[in-house]
Amino acid sequence: MCRTVLAGHFVPKVQNEVWDEIKELFPEEVKERIKVVNEIKKKNANMVKITVKYGNTHKLLKKFHTLKSGNANKHRWSCYVRIDDRNIQSEKLIKSVEFELDETFPTNLITRKSAPYEFQMTGWGVFDIPIKITWQHWLKMGPTEVTYPLSFEGTGRQRSFIIKIPKDALAKNTDAKGKLTAIERLIRKRKAI
């Protein structure tokens, strides 16, 4: 279990008898751990969680071109990075996305500096695509790098990860008239739940 990737919504169940015994045997360590957990909770209370999805679409072509090598370019695919919230414009968070393709492509580095952060290709084989997401300056986050295994199964696949944005940084994301931005509306909506 120590190497198992747990779902983001996983909440472990506390075994009360074991917990009571641990508290009795290690009172100082438990006190320190509770303090750390409370600090993490306090820090997370000032954060908004945003899901970022990355993946590919796929379509098998009926008409395709066969290369000199004998490989058939019969797969139409696109690779993308998206913010998983329709209330948030991707450009508010993402400055640019770089997709690094296999060296057999004539242009193997594709950069998108505005939404949609996506590109489309035709090809014959799968490979890993290193993706570098550069965030807007106001987020004060370094780039996020992930590797996506291109999939020709069905209509494609996707993965996701969560970023945490400080609520106070959202002030940089309001318009000149002081109207609520989509991110601020999202925060207020989530507070109400």
TrEMBL record:
GO terms for cellular component: nucleus. Pfam families: YEATS. GO terms for biological process: regulation of DNA-templated transcription. It comes from the Eukaryota. It is found in: Nucleus. PROSITE patterns: YEATS. The keyword Metal-binding does not apply. Keywords: Nucleus. Residues 42-193 form the YEATS domain. The keyword Nucleus applies. Its main location: nucleus. This is YEATS domain-containing protein. It comes from Euplotes crassus.
